[in-house]
Design goal:
The protein has eight helices and nine strands. With 248 residues, the protein is of the alpha/beta class. The protein has one domain: NAD(P)-binding Rossmann-like Domain (Rossmann fold), CATH 3.40.50. A seven-stranded parallel beta sheet has the order 3-2-1-4-5-6-9, with helices on both faces. It binds NADP nicotinamide-adenine-dinucleotide phosphate. InterPro entries: NAD(P)-bd_dom (IPR016040), NAD(P)-bd_dom_sf (IPR036291). Pfam families: NAD_binding_10 (PF13460).
């Protein structure tokens, strides 16, 4: 599988690249970002860093010919480019909408058209817990942000529904993501407690990524995966990986 990881320089993107490089079903990893994607630290034994190709993009609404050439023939994309809530407020609304919604909608359309026709292109849109797809139900807190992310989910899923046989889409909605690259264990426990109190859940980035890679390789269980789904699928995938490594 030739897999595009968009947002490969971010927290989730880095773990996606790390695990994809040691996944034998993934033969090529195209790391799509606005800057160079380095080979992640702490690769698993058996990882093949030569599968990684960093693709720098300077226009996410109109790919250059060289970016299109790299993306052509890809089998799937995991889209993680967006503003996380703490960064959203520092952007004007039209700019935030481009980054969180329009780039992803352009991506699914452009990549589907650049893909091989023998099987459907698979597209994962990373969103988050608590987003709202119904514009009449604006959440009290972070309402504009949560509606914008919900609108992006709706548009991505609608494109896939309108193009059966050409593309399959899945929206993933993790709650708080614990990452050992970014958080201390203590901080993780504090955030995890908050996630439980507010009801948006928590997932370890290593399980999350193991599960999402399984879904993209083997097919989507359903078109929207909640934090609880991601935690369940991810823990099962991590267990499978650990058993495989123990046998090697
Ligand atoms: N982290 C969490 O706890 C959490 C929880 C729930 C959902 N999520 C969702 O998961 C996804 C990934 O989150 P993350 O934590 O990995 O985010 P992150 O670390 O902030 O990474 C975001 C990625 O998007 C890129 N990006 C941001 N603004 C851009 C722009 N204007 N143009 C092009 N690229 C841009 C970043 O590039 P640069 O590296 O160049 O800035 C980076 O590659 C997001 O959709 C997020 O909402 C995250």
């Amino acid at each position: 599988m030739k897999l595009v990881i968009a947002g490969s320089t971010g927290v989730v993107g880095t773990e996606l690249v790390r695990q994809a490089l040691s996944n034998p079903a993934i033969t090529a990893v195209l790391a799509l970002a606005r800057r160079e994607t380095p080979v992640p630290s702490r690769l698993s034994p058996g990882a093949d860093a030569s599968k990684l190709k960093s693709v720098i993009c300077d226009d996410f609404e109109n790919y250059s010919d060289s970016v299109k050439k790299e993306l052509s023939g890809a089998d799937a994309c995991i889209w993680t480019i967006a503003l996380i809530p703490s960064k959203y407020g520092s952007f004007p609304p039209d700019q935030a909408a481009k980054i969180c919604r329009d780039y992803a909608v352009y991506a699914i359309e452009a990549m589907t058209n650049l893909a091989e026709r023998s099987k459907p292109f698979r597209f994962v849109y990373f969103s988050g817990s608590g987003t709202e797809r119904d514009p009449s139900k604006k959440p009290l807190l972070m309402g504009d942000y949560l509606l914008l992310r919900g609108e992006a989910e709706t548009k991505v899923l609608a494109y896939a529904q309108q193009n059966p046989g050409k593309v399959e889409a899945c929206v993933v909605k993790p709650g708080y993501i614990y990452s050992p690259d970014k958080h201390s264990a203590l901080m993780g426990r504090v955030f995890g407690l908050g996630a439980a109190v507010f009801g948006f859940g928590e997932v370890d980035v290593r399980d999350l990524v193991a599960g999402v890679l399984d879904q993209v390789v083997d097919g989507f269980e359903k078109d929207t995966l909640s934090n609880a789904d991601l935690d369940r699928i991810g823990k099962a995938s991590s267990k499978k990986l650990a058993e495989l490594r123990a046998k090697q």
